[in-house]
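Limitations

Structures in this collection are predictions, not experimental determinations, and the ligand pose is part of the prediction. Treat each record accordingly. The example that follows, with zinc ion as the small molecule, is included so readers can see exactly what is and is not provided: the inputs are given verbatim, and the output is the predicted complex.
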Amino acid sequence: MLIRFTLSLALTRLAGAVCWHDPAAVALPSFGYALERGPLTWAGLAPAPQYDACRLGKKQSPIVVYTRTAKRVDPKNFKMNITQYINSGGVKLENLGTTLEVHAGREHGSLVGVIGIEGEPYGPYRLENMHFHTPSEHRINDEYYPLEMHLVFKSGNRFAVIGVLFQLVSGSPPNNEFMHNLFLSVRNITRPGTSTITGTLDFRGLSNAIKTGPLYTYNGSLTTPPCTENVKWLVLGGTRPLHVDTYNKVKSVMKFNARYSQNAPGKINLLERARRIADGATVAASSELEPQSDVVLEGDGILVGSEGEEPMVPLLLDDEEYLATQNVLEW
Ligand SMILES: [Zn+2]
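Predicted complex:
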């Protein structure tokens, strides 16, 4: 998952209004996925304690989701709407160096979206951005997938992220018109800091798949620095199809951008555990390294983090100013 600083975002939008292909229009993160800027060193890329959660957090993402015991969101309690703000033409797709991203907003070339979960003390959550990882960050019953989409939503300062896994298919393209159109001109943005315009995006198929579920939920974190915790994750259990030709185009641009699987929620951070072992602790003395598939997600989910961190927000779409701007958000 990716979060950008407000100033960078403001600069991006300011420059984007001038020229969508200006390299200076896209602010680039400082972390990476390889060597000395990779996930093992993220905690040290900013003065402490900014990225401390990356090495000390005990509810880090991504994780392995074990479907036998994972907590689910009942589809009848989940509502979502997502679309292009301007319903014709494409949206702006940026190469951030660390991911390919479409941001949400109220200008041309943006997306708008909202989700709500009945019984959830926070929300509704508004869409922030849509971006991708290859290979997938989450794994289902240990299996990873070629691509994962993250739909990042926010309510106040609390995040909710939907993870959608893609499985490769062949045959006559496009097997998935949404992904085909999204990455239609991805070869134009091989250089980090550049952007292009997608084909028209029809979110209905993707939305229906997400709303049908199963949606597995747990309390985790951003998967990029600052690795902020208390992120509500919703991981779609079924995969969406992705044509192999589309995937190969995306992979050639995005390269590799997946954080390694983190320990089960609530267990010691693997980097801290590794440090202790290196300092002489024995592996046999602790069961903390072993993912506990029977308990991995139990007790997590929508109630975690509700202990007085933020005022409760009723689950109502009562933001009249927002709705007046976007009549597409009727449920
Ligand atoms: Zn992500």
